[in-house]
Design brief:
Elements: E1 3-7, H1 11-23, E2 27-31, H2 34-44, E3 48-52, H3 61-71, E4 76-81, H4 86-94, E5 99-102, H5 107-124
Parallel strand pairs: 1-2, 1-3, 3-4, 4-5
């Protein structure tokens, strides 16, 4: 199973994703802001990052992803957002984001997206 880091400033999303993905057998860590996510990610070395695009801190989810990929180039990032815009999708694609999901989403969608991210890694090895 995957090591997953979830960063979202909305406690409901953070806790729900932690519970759902842990129940799938994943090792899940959570963070409420970008700086905490980077600190946790450097220690935890996640396979998958699920990050809200707009965080209430000075860092965006995309910036968290870019910072963590310096030391973990194989990190697969799933960006989640309640404010999907073409500009954001383009920036995510340019940055190599694995998936871009619009809130609210069904829990089965996030489960399958994490599975897909891990299959992609398995195929590369």
């Amino acid at each position: 199973m995957a090591k997953v880091l979830v960063v979202d400033d909305e406690p409901m999303y953070r806790k729900t994703l932690q519970e759902v993905l842990s129940a799938e057998g994943h090792n899940v860590e959570i963070a409420a802001d970008g700086r905490s996510a980077i600190e946790i990610g450097q220690r935890f070395d996640p396979d998958v990052l699920i990050a809200d695009w707009i965080l209430q801190s000075s860092l965006s989810g995309l910036e968290v992803s870019e910072a963590l990929r310096v030391t973990s180039p194989g990190l697969r990032t799933i960006i989640i957002t309640g404010f999907p815009a073409k500009k954001l999708r383009v920036a995510a694609k340019k940055s190599g984001v694995f998936a871009f999901l619009e809130k609210p989403f069904e829990l089965d969608v996030i489960r399958e997206t994490v599975r897909s991210a891990m299959r992609r890694e398995t195929l590369k090895r």
